[in-house]
Queue: 4 jobs
Job 1
Amino acid sequence: MHGNCIYHSHKEINFVMLTFTLLVVLFASPSWAALPQFSWDTLPVFFHSSNTTGIYNDDALKTIAKFKMATIEKWMGYDMKNIDDEDEMVLAMRAIKAANPKIATYFYMNSFKDRPEMTRMARELSENPSYYLRDSDGTRVKNGGGFYAFDLSNPDVRQWWLNICLNATKFANGDGCFCDSSQRENSSFRPKPLAEKLKNWGEGMLNLTRDVQEALGENKLLIGKYPGQPYVKAVQIESFEPTNDSIVSLMLGASHGQVVQAHVPISIECSSDLTNYLATFLIGAGQYSYFGCGNWNATGNDTRPLTWLPEYDKPLGPPKSTGVYNSQTGVWSRLFASGTDVLFDTKTNKGTIKWSQ
Ligand SMILES: *[C@@H]1O[C@H](CO)[C@@H](O)[C@H](O)[C@H]1NC(C)=O
Ligand SMILES: *[C@@H]1O[C@H](CO)[C@@H](O)[C@H](O)[C@H]1NC(C)=O
Ligand SMILES: *[C@@H]1O[C@H](CO)[C@@H](O)[C@H](O)[C@H]1NC(C)=O
Ligand SMILES: *[C@@H]1O[C@H](CO)[C@@H](O)[C@H](O)[C@H]1NC(C)=O
Ligand SMILES: *[C@@H]1O[C@H](CO)[C@@H](O)[C@H](O)[C@H]1NC(C)=O
Ligand SMILES: *[C@@H]1O[C@H](CO)[C@@H](O)[C@H](O)[C@H]1NC(C)=O
Ligand SMILES: *[C@@H]1O[C@H](CO)[C@@H](O)[C@H](O)[C@H]1NC(C)=O
């Protein structure tokens, strides 16, 4: 019987080797880790925060590794003065991948604000006078928050931004970038640039998101800011409230085929009762929708952004249908395969979840 194994014809061996090679290509190519994992087995959850003091400790990394996606925010390592924040962010992303190679990791970037937390970007901007948005007198323009704005109508600025995202993604072995403040909001700019400049700036923002998502490719994500946002394959709803509007917004992102991150407002303690938020999410969630809670930064051994709720481990199963709205009562309902039953009342903005046992 051994003979059958030993005396393969060359053709057979080539076939076996070809099949093996194909399997290796299919299952071992890096693309498998790029799109975030998704399953209805339990609530799909994402992490988005930073540790201003430095790299997370092992316990923290173990917790972060349980989420399907993790974005490292700009305050990572902000209290460390001898290293650029961008490098500390990349190190944190690497540490998370080492804790769980299957988690998808993302590098925070702001689409147009000169944020001092991004220390290398802030330095490079100051070395390139033509990168600043300016009014007709040449005065540099600030937004309402007091941050200088990048001139996104300048193709060199967009190329600079794109290179930083791709470089960080490469060094972190990461899965894309977050693109904060990409709503094209221009009303707070002071001094006011000419209308023509603002128009080109808005178009430049669109071109930036288009070109960066394209450069990242099919399986990596640029995470934008509102469901239905053009070009980006993913979006975050930064303040996901228990309201009808949030349900409609979440469904809109899902209907565009976008990965959607629904984030509880940072004013809410994650250890408090989040039932209303969870019910809102469960009514609207689609394939590749994720729930998240926690402030954008913490200092020292503060673990609040790492809160792992008991609800994250409860059985869910695929939904039996999309959320069903009863216009008579104003109540949304949805049933999941495990028997978990969710209601959301738009008259009171309260939700109830009967978890299956
Ligand atoms: C934050 O970083 C510091 C320095 O590495 C570390 O001592 C602390 O434990 C970290 N906090 C968490 C929650 O991991
Ligand atoms: C690319 O990222 C690595 C790791 O953070 C950093 O050391 C390097 O300086 C970056 N390169 C550029 C051109 O910014
Ligand atoms: C945006 O991209 C389009 C198409 O590639 C180009 O024609 C246009 O000039 C770009 N806009 C700006 C402001 O650079
Ligand atoms: C400024 O932003 C507003 C709101 O997004 C937009 O309607 C308007 O067209 C923008 N202004 C210019 C000159 O593009
Ligand atoms: C909630 O959203 C649904 C779907 O868009 C809409 O039909 C309904 O009128 C909304 N209900 C309330 C109370 O706004
Ligand atoms: C943490 O983030 C908040 C905004 O959420 C910011 O106001 C604050 O300055 C940050 N704190 C530190 C220590 O970086
Ligand atoms: C976090 O706690 C550990 C263990 O108690 C301690 O060694 C470390 O210095 C703490 N880190 C910070 C930044 O407070």
Job 2
Amino acid sequence: MIFLLVPLLFGPALLSAASKVHWQKRNLNTVQSIYNLTIYPANAKILTEGASAVPAGLFNATATGRVTPVGEFFGFDDSIEYFFGLAPLPTGQPPNGVITNATLVAFASGCAEVAASTVYLTVRALNADGSAGAYISTLKQVAFWRFDKSGAVLQYDAWIPSLDPFALLTHGFDVYTPAGMNATIQAVCAQQALTCVGANTVYDGVDDCVTTLTDKAFGRFDEAWGDNVVCRSIHVLLTKIRPEVHCPHVGPTGGGKCIDVSYNDVYFNDQFLFGSPLGEPFHCSSDE
Ligand SMILES: *[C@@H]1O[C@H](CO)[C@@H](O)[C@H](O)[C@H]1NC(C)=O
Ligand SMILES: *[C@@H]1O[C@H](CO)[C@@H](O)[C@H](O)[C@H]1NC(C)=O
Ligand SMILES: *[C@@H]1O[C@H](CO)[C@@H](O)[C@H](O)[C@H]1NC(C)=O
Ligand SMILES: *[C@@H]1O[C@H](CO)[C@@H](O)[C@H](O)[C@H]1NC(C)=O
């Protein structure tokens, strides 16, 4: 009798505890897998091969979210390009650092559909033999995630605090001096001349690009979203993946992305971005 009663009394609690462990592990695994793909050379593969190189099950086809202070991203391609296409490559002279380690320093998931995390993405120089070299800096990203029924990311609201000092350390020079601004403009214009060609051309050559961008606000990495040079220096990285989409963002008009936005609008337009009532995406709808 006692043996029969025990499962009746504790069965549901045990089942619920088991499923809790299941989705906590599942969500942790999804978030860690996403950040692992920012590590070089995993990110390089996605840059060259595009969406097909992203393992199935990480992002829903309609994945949408905001990454403060960079922008809002609509759909799978936009989302994966932000997460992986912007992770640094060992280009430049001396080579930029790359992400060598993605450590989830905080993670909580109170229900199957929502989790919160903080990741530290370590940036190190790359030695000539491809091994990780000297420590340069760490990118911190705090995020809330919503998952679909299968555990893929459906919505995210992420935040990179203090992108400014991080950008200065990883550039290796002060981008805000006259020489630093010039070097940044020269680099953006040289890169777009390689990737924004043919039907995707947005400037009449490098000189036109330099003249146009010199007349624009330079911007700041801490507030990268705007009609400025810094915004274009971020989006130009993505012209390697889908030039037809990203070249206009680097061009004279900013193509709807590198445009001046209203802080009061874009950082709070959750209803527009997520298509559900304010606060709904990142609250647990059930307590199981
Ligand atoms: C993430 O990468 C680390 C280091 O390579 C590895 O140990 C870990 O298993 C990976 N985690 C996932 C979920 O892919
Ligand atoms: C993607 O999310 C939508 C909305 O929640 C859902 O209907 C669809 O089934 C999801 N796709 C997959 C492959 O799970
Ligand atoms: C990543 O960093 C964590 C924390 O510093 C460390 O425990 C782990 O060994 C590192 N992993 C790799 C692959 O370097
Ligand atoms: C900007 O940099 C380019 C390339 O290094 C150089 O030729 C040019 O003189 C610089 N212009 C200014 C105003 O410093």
Job 3
Amino acid sequence: MSMKVAARALLLPLVLAAILHPAAVVALGDGTPGSGGGGFSLRLVPSPGWNRTIHVDDDGFVHLNEHATSALRPPMHTQVGGMYSVVTSVGTGAGRRTYVLALDMTTNLLWMQCKPVQEPFTQLPPPFEPAKSPSFRRLPGNNAFCLPAPRGHRRTVQDPCKFHSIRLDGSADARGVLSNETLAFAASGQQQTEVTGVVIGCTHNSNGFNFNSHGVLAGVLGLGRQAPSLIWTLGQHRHGAVQVHRFSYCLPNHGSSDHHSFLRFGDDVPHTQHMVSTKIMYMAATAGRDFSAYFVSLTGVSVAGKPLHDIKELFRRHVHGQEWTSGCAFDAGTPTMVMIMPAYNKLKDAVVRHLKPLGLQIVSGQYHLCFRATSQLWQHLPTVMLQFAETEARLVLPPQRLFVAVGHDICLAVVRSYDITIIGAMQQVDKRFVYDVRNGRIYFAPENACHADAGHQI
Ligand SMILES: *[C@@H]1O[C@H](CO)[C@@H](O)[C@H](O)[C@H]1NC(C)=O
Ligand SMILES: *[C@@H]1O[C@H](CO)[C@@H](O)[C@H](O)[C@H]1NC(C)=O
């Protein structure tokens, strides 16, 4: 049995152990000592079910399992491949449970199934029971976070405080009632940190999440920057000793020998040398879920060193009619790159032009652009570079970060979109990202072995 297989076999039991023994405190042997503002980390794990759809070869390329992916109905490419999830404990007393939640940095609400659930999706452990958690409080119906009342009505304190959370790409949504609850995370120095006053959405009804849950996930952790997201909450109050404006992650390749790492907050964010940074856009826009994502100014793309022309405007967020549209955001909750159509076409043309001397056969496949694989092709796949507003902020994407193997084909793992560009998880692997939400900047630097972020635990 190779290392890879052994590691894969280890992973789910590890996740399940965390779920089934909620009392076990996650010890962070390597927590970087902080300057006193407080810090803690959530375990970041590949989403359950990923091993049915992908594996990573020794060459570092992601291979999609053709049968698993073509069996998806409807085929939703953005959902195929490496998703990452976060492990967190919710509630207090007899109600405390540990759940795995899908990470989504484009929305601003943590939601999960709560009993009673109409048409539940399967999850592990069973859905949260508010009645058993003494810290659970429903928000009053006139709270600012509730959905606005229908025309001609006014919500009163007694009304349920409703929410409707929709993914930026529209692939899943959930409805329910907002409440106030306590979460618990591992802190550096081996204790659990409790964070009170976190707004969570209790859903009794959701759409499109069944497939994503893989029988394990309980909901979504929305880590967008706007209220009432977790990072917003942490920045507002002093939750015990913790007041936090920064978070960080380093996504390990799914094929590396230790798959999990940490979503680190505050003082748990390690010091990393030589980071470059770019501005988070629309920091002044304080309302509207559409601005919760981490938009950046992507100003250039080059393929094998050649810049694509007239591309900057295509990534700009702008008003179209009454609505804001387009723009480019970072999201570790989107498996692979999504690109607005006109920009995608330029990228595709440049890739085809670069590979043309090899006389390759273009085939239809899982993605829009696929080639029949040859040994020559593997060696000639181009490196793509993303250039951000500031001169030194560049994200270099070696072929392993942008191309996937699907059966006998090699595909450009970029999904076409009518309205958005997202730099997804696959492009962020093996890099340290730090989001400084207070100062409105994203920092990043290569980090060779993100799996080393797992510290000493197993
Ligand atoms: C994926 O993981 C599950 C849970 O550990 C395991 O039962 C299953 O056999 C794995 N599938 C593959 C293809 O490795
Ligand atoms: C949630 O509860 C905490 C503590 O009880 C309180 O300070 C906070 O204002 C509440 N949050 C909301 C949104 O009502």
Job 4
Amino acid sequence: MKASETVLEIDLKALEHNYRYLASKVNSQVKKLAVIKAFAYGSDSVALAKRLEKLEVDYFAVAYTKEGVALRDGGVTKPILVLHPQSAHFQEIIDRCLTPSIYSDFVLTHFIASAEANNQQHYPIHLKLNTGLNRLGFDPDEAPLIIEKLQQTSSIKVDGIFSHLAASEDPEEKEFTTSQINTFKKVSEDIIAGIGYQPLKHLCNTSGILNYPEAHFDMVRTGIGLYGYGNSDEIDKQLIPVGTLKTIISQIHHIKEGESVGYNRKFKAEKDTKTATLPLGHADGINRIYGKQKTNVSINGHLAPIIGNVCMDMIMIDISGINCKEGDEVILFGKEKSAEEFAHNAGTISYELITSVSQRVKRKIIE
Ligand SMILES: *Cc1c(COP(=O)(O)O)cnc(C)c1O
């Protein structure tokens, strides 16, 4: 359907297709965790979670506690791993049955205190190990300390042990990734021997699922693939973008050679030029990096560059030679036009582009 305003269309059929594709790449007994942090990569976390629950996803993950609370408020009942909780939110985590990632001695100590204060027995947590990304996680040499702390309390139980790969999409980093896999195996086995029971082990994100089948362990975590992007042209062909960002032409101008367009006059017409003004800008997630002819939008099947500086609420495009009129639909990225390409042209990645679509943009769910 043609857009009549700025809208992010969210196609749940595409989500289902991508989920089934990714699920087909792992053994059926391997559990599937859907990463739906950051509003499900800029779309709609509750709507997507509900559909994914129907598809029998086993687990969800978000980055922060409030994202998990929003899912519970929306009626999501499956386990939700909070990847990066802060101790200020531990009470809320316990109140809303969220599963914290425990990534440091500080967090472990404080979470045990919260669980004990709430008279919890065997409250599920996941242990996060740092195997080389050097972002979050216990270092391998902290394993004895983790074991000792866990042996001293029955208030928590380890439901999962996981780590995160630094470069799973990059074949040139295969050696490094293999070392991460081996470190993960070794440290998780040490911890399992120490605690005496088997939690879920998980390591792979989307590119890990596709490139390292030997490292699927008990569960895989997929984010970007669910939304239709696979960090390679080959995989992108198999996936369908879930979100399509559309808008319309607000106004058309015919400007003369030598005239300029937009703030600071960053576009100067070298010849008579037809321009269109669109009702979205950097406050909607089309950041200034996309301006000054770095990337294109699509109108009636023709590409039109974004010209001049992106404004807060508007962008201008060059539509010279394109047959179009005010009110016509404009596609920024999505099903017919790759977000990866839109982002790449301006020097960034699909992850950043799609998660930047701001809450001002209307979301429209398509079944
Ligand atoms: C965001 C995230 C993922 C998802 O990664 P994709 O590349 O989007 O599949 C998985 N695991 C962790 C720890 C993450 O932070």
